[in-house]
Amino acid sequence: MEPEVSDLAIPTDHEVFQIKPGKRTGLPVMIGVHSTALGPAIGGLRIKTYDDSAAGIADVLRLSQAMTLKAAAIDNGSGGGKTVVPLPKDFMLTPQIKEAILLDVADHVHELGGIYHVAPDVGTGPLDIDVIRRRTPFAGGYSKEAGGAGGTTYGTYIGLDTAIRAAVRRVLNTTSMKGARVSIVGLGGIGTLIARDYAAEGAVLTVSDIDLSRRDFAEEIGAKWVTPEDALLADCDVLAPCALGGLLTHCKVPTLSAKIICGAANNQLATDDVADALKARGIVYVPDFIANAGGLMYASGIEFHHRSEAGSETHTREGIARNVDIVLSEAERSVLSTHSIAIDLALARLDAASKPV
Ligand SMILES: NC(=O)c1ccc[n+]([C@@H]2O[C@H](COP(=O)([O-])OP(=O)(O)OC[C@H]3O[C@@H](n4cnc5c(N)ncnc54)[C@H](O)[C@@H]3O)[C@@H](O)[C@H]2O)c1
């Protein structure tokens, strides 16, 4: 039997959670504003099919809470939110319907009066945010043509690159990726960018994707193409999960051969305590919400904090390198996992913000 929403381990401490039908499409627009303690909530708009409404609700609630932790961990001056428009199975998403959904979302975001800024996520990109901005200024990650950061992919890529290099420096005691054995699961926007860079620098790459057309790119950069399962288990210095979450499970941990795990995918740990099992095996796990925070940092740096592109890149790289150093060095001195330390870092910042001055 499918679990009820109430049975799922989902957070319920949100400032706002609403489900309202869009007036143009009738489709439900689910918005979660988890926290504005550190500033307006920022979080992506996910438009995708779900098995049922409960799965969409669980996504909004969990992902908006995760955005609060991510924003707090990087001290971004923003909180966490998320929007989901769940599509029924076999739904035909035409360009006209998509535009109507985006305008519905824009209306609902605008009604919240600025406590929440919507951004790109699964099923949406910078051009979609341009459409939303026709109705509301409370939207980020818009196109460069419209004066924005051009989405979040570039920022996430430079942030992940910085996180990997910081971990490599600490664990392997080198500043170069030359000769480093890197295994990448997922050759999408982010995986492709880091693979190309590291191949050019002389890293030894193993790559994988469920999309077999990505094999041509692997050949182009001289990387070894394997199945996603083999990439996960590869004997390597750095394993970079850049596809979906949930791939690090208690069953998998004893079979891993990586020295460092550092990737862009959200929610890589199937459960939080997998981080303890990784630590017990001596595998250095860079928490996902630290490693993939660059997109949020870089885009909000340009659009929200009005930094130049170069200024936002420097701020992003310095901030992520600092956070990785703090988390890994504290984990070396502590019995706690890197994941617990990163959460404590975020909670301490939230706690300080909620105390009266
Ligand atoms: N792009 C961003 O700004 C950003 C920010 C934070 C987190 N993330 C997360 O990082 C990950 C990578 O982001 P992206 O922008 O490159 O996404 P993407 O959609 O461009 O690429 C994901 C790739 O993973 C592949 N894939 C899917 N399932 C797979 C599987 N089981 N095994 C192997 N490959 C699989 C897909 O075919 C695709 O090529 C995603 O999980 C995303 O949610 C991205």
UniProtKB/TrEMBL annotation:
Keywords: NAD, Nucleotide-binding, Oxidoreductase
UniProt keyword Glycoprotein, yes or no: no
Sequence ranges assigned to domain Glutamate/phenylalanine/leucine/valine/L-tryptophan dehydrogenase C-terminal in this UniProt record: 148-355
Gene Ontology MF: a single term: nucleotide binding
Gene Ontology annotations of biological process type: amino acid metabolic process
Positions contributing to NAD(+) binding: G186, L187, G188, G189, I190, G191
Active site: residue positions: K82 (proton donor/acceptor)
InterPro entries referenced in this protein's UniProt entry, alphabetically: Aminoacid_DH-like_N_sf (IPR046346), Glu/Leu/Phe/Val/Trp_DH (IPR006095), Glu/Leu/Phe/Val/Trp_DH_C (IPR006096), Glu/Leu/Phe/Val/Trp_DH_dimer (IPR006097), Glu/Phe/Leu/Val/Trp_DH_bac/arc (IPR016211), NAD(P)-bd_dom_sf (IPR036291)
Keyword Oxidoreductase attached: yes
SMART domains referenced in this protein's UniProt entry, alphabetically: ELFV_dehydrog
PANTHER family given in the database record: LEUCINE DEHYDROGENASE, VALINE DEHYDROGENASE
Family in the record: Belongs to the Glu/Leu/Phe/Val dehydrogenases family.
Protein name in UniProt: Putative Glu/Leu/Phe/Val dehydrogenase
